Amino acid sequence: MHEPRKPTILCVDDDEAIRGWAEVILTAHGWQVETVDGGRTALQAAQERPPDVILLDVTMPDMNGYEVCAKLQEQEKTASIPVIFATARGGEDDKMKAFQVGAADYLVKPMNEKRAVSNGGPPSDDEQAVEENHRCSPAGATRRIQS
User: Fold this and answer.
1) pTM of the predicted model over 0.70
2) Average pLDDT per 10 consecutive residues for the chain, totaling 147 residues
3) Does residue 1 belong to any structural domain of this protein?
4) What pLDDT, on the 0 to 100 scale, is given for residue 95?
Protein backbone atom coordinates (compact mmCIF):
# COMPACT_ATOMS: atom_id res chain seq x y z
CA MET A 1 0.00 0.00 0.00
CA HIS A 2 1.24 3.44 -0.92
CA GLU A 3 1.72 5.92 1.96
CA PRO A 4 0.30 9.41 1.43
CA ARG A 5 2.79 12.12 0.54
CA LYS A 6 4.08 14.03 3.54
CA PRO A 7 3.70 17.80 3.37
CA THR A 8 7.03 19.49 2.70
CA ILE A 9 8.43 22.49 4.52
CA LEU A 10 11.51 24.53 3.71
CA CYS A 11 13.08 25.90 6.91
CA VAL A 12 15.29 28.93 6.25
CA ASP A 13 17.48 30.16 9.11
CA ASP A 14 21.15 31.08 9.40
CA ASP A 15 21.26 29.56 12.91
CA GLU A 16 22.24 25.89 12.66
CA ALA A 17 20.69 25.09 16.05
CA ILE A 18 17.30 26.50 14.96
CA ARG A 19 17.42 24.53 11.71
CA GLY A 20 18.25 21.35 13.61
CA TRP A 21 15.47 21.93 16.15
CA ALA A 22 12.94 22.63 13.42
CA GLU A 23 13.94 19.53 11.46
CA VAL A 24 13.65 17.22 14.46
CA ILE A 25 10.33 18.64 15.66
CA LEU A 26 8.65 19.00 12.28
CA THR A 27 9.79 15.56 11.07
CA ALA A 28 8.35 14.02 14.24
CA HIS A 29 5.03 15.67 13.36
CA GLY A 30 4.83 14.29 9.85
CA TRP A 31 6.61 16.88 7.75
CA GLN A 32 9.27 16.23 5.16
CA VAL A 33 11.80 18.95 6.04
CA GLU A 34 14.49 20.62 3.98
CA THR A 35 16.71 23.18 5.69
CA VAL A 36 18.87 25.92 4.19
CA ASP A 37 20.99 28.60 5.80
CA GLY A 38 20.30 31.70 3.75
CA GLY A 39 18.02 33.67 1.49
CA ARG A 40 19.69 32.97 -1.84
CA THR A 41 19.83 29.25 -1.11
CA ALA A 42 16.16 29.37 -0.12
CA LEU A 43 15.16 30.97 -3.42
CA GLN A 44 17.06 28.33 -5.35
CA ALA A 45 15.62 25.44 -3.30
CA ALA A 46 12.07 26.77 -3.65
CA GLN A 47 12.47 26.98 -7.44
CA GLU A 48 13.99 23.50 -7.74
CA ARG A 49 11.76 21.69 -5.23
CA PRO A 50 8.75 23.87 -4.35
CA PRO A 51 7.69 23.08 -0.78
CA ASP A 52 4.15 23.22 0.59
CA VAL A 53 5.21 25.80 3.20
CA ILE A 54 8.27 27.95 3.92
CA LEU A 55 9.33 28.75 7.50
CA LEU A 56 11.50 31.86 7.14
CA ASP A 57 13.75 33.85 9.47
CA VAL A 58 14.04 37.61 8.99
CA THR A 59 17.64 38.34 9.97
CA MET A 60 20.13 36.51 7.77
CA PRO A 61 23.51 37.69 6.46
CA ASP A 62 23.08 37.30 2.71
CA MET A 63 19.48 38.44 2.17
CA ASN A 64 16.84 39.24 4.77
CA GLY A 65 13.58 37.34 5.01
CA TYR A 66 11.52 40.27 3.74
CA GLU A 67 13.57 40.32 0.53
CA VAL A 68 13.26 36.55 0.16
CA CYS A 69 9.50 36.63 0.63
CA ALA A 70 9.09 39.48 -1.86
CA LYS A 71 11.16 37.62 -4.47
CA LEU A 72 9.12 34.44 -3.90
CA GLN A 73 5.95 36.44 -4.54
CA GLU A 74 7.36 37.76 -7.84
CA GLN A 75 8.00 34.30 -9.28
CA GLU A 76 5.07 32.37 -10.72
CA LYS A 77 6.41 29.00 -9.52
CA THR A 78 6.69 30.14 -5.87
CA ALA A 79 4.09 32.91 -5.49
CA SER A 80 1.43 30.62 -4.02
CA ILE A 81 3.67 28.98 -1.39
CA PRO A 82 2.62 30.12 2.11
CA VAL A 83 5.51 31.81 3.93
CA ILE A 84 5.48 31.74 7.72
CA PHE A 85 8.00 34.09 9.28
CA ALA A 86 9.70 32.69 12.39
CA THR A 87 11.85 35.38 13.94
CA ALA A 88 12.93 36.99 17.19
CA ARG A 89 11.65 40.32 15.85
CA GLY A 90 8.28 40.76 17.52
CA GLY A 91 7.54 44.42 16.87
CA GLU A 92 4.35 45.49 15.13
CA ASP A 93 6.35 47.21 12.37
CA ASP A 94 8.19 43.94 11.70
CA LYS A 95 4.93 42.01 11.49
CA MET A 96 3.34 44.59 9.21
CA LYS A 97 6.34 44.55 6.90
CA ALA A 98 6.17 40.74 6.70
CA PHE A 99 2.50 40.81 5.71
CA GLN A 100 3.15 43.61 3.21
CA VAL A 101 5.68 41.43 1.36
CA GLY A 102 3.33 38.45 1.29
CA ALA A 103 3.69 36.49 4.54
CA ALA A 104 0.89 34.08 5.37
CA ASP A 105 1.69 34.15 9.09
CA TYR A 106 4.22 35.37 11.65
CA LEU A 107 5.68 33.52 14.66
CA VAL A 108 7.96 35.07 17.25
CA LYS A 109 10.94 33.11 18.60
CA PRO A 110 11.63 31.50 20.92
CA MET A 111 8.98 28.93 20.11
CA ASN A 112 8.29 25.72 21.90
CA GLU A 113 7.20 22.52 20.18
CA LYS A 114 3.52 23.12 20.87
CA ARG A 115 3.73 26.62 19.48
CA ALA A 116 5.41 25.39 16.29
CA VAL A 117 3.22 22.41 15.41
CA SER A 118 0.21 21.98 17.68
CA ASN A 119 -3.36 21.69 16.55
CA GLY A 120 -4.70 23.74 19.42
CA GLY A 121 -1.80 25.99 20.32
CA PRO A 122 -0.06 26.29 23.66
CA PRO A 123 -1.97 25.90 26.91
CA SER A 124 -3.62 29.24 27.50
CA ASP A 125 -6.65 30.76 29.18
CA ASP A 126 -6.78 33.33 26.41
CA GLU A 127 -8.74 31.75 23.54
CA GLN A 128 -7.68 34.50 21.15
CA ALA A 129 -4.01 33.73 21.82
CA VAL A 130 -4.68 30.04 21.26
CA GLU A 131 -6.46 30.76 17.97
CA GLU A 132 -3.70 33.15 16.83
CA ASN A 133 -1.02 30.56 17.60
CA HIS A 134 -2.95 27.82 15.79
CA ARG A 135 -3.49 30.04 12.75
CA CYS A 136 0.26 30.69 12.63
CA SER A 137 1.40 27.09 13.08
CA PRO A 138 2.64 24.87 10.27
CA ALA A 139 -0.18 22.47 11.21
CA GLY A 140 -2.69 25.24 10.57
CA ALA A 141 -0.96 26.12 7.31
CA THR A 142 -1.28 22.52 6.13
CA ARG A 143 -5.02 22.57 6.72
CA ARG A 144 -5.28 25.83 4.75
CA ILE A 145 -3.32 24.26 1.90
CA GLN A 146 -5.52 21.16 1.85
CA SER A 147 -8.77 23.17 1.97
Assistant:
1) yes
2) 86 94 92 96 97 96 96 97 92 94 91 49 36 44 43
3) no
4) 94
User: Does the residue 103 lie in any domain?
Assistant: yes
Work out the widest C-alpha separation in the chain, in whole angstroms. Answer: 49
Q: What is the CATH number of the domain that holds 112?
A: 3.40.50.2300
**CA dist 53 → 13, 50, 72, 96, 143 (Å):** 14, 9, 12, 20, 11
Residue at 24: amino acid letter: V
Tally of domains in the chain:
1
CA distance 13 to 122: 23
Query: What is the extent of the structural domain holding 26?
Result: 8-146
Cα angle 39, 33, 129; round to 5: 85
Residue 117 is predicted with a pLDDT of 53
CA pair distance 92, 81, nearest whole angstrom: 23
CA distance 133 to 105: 10
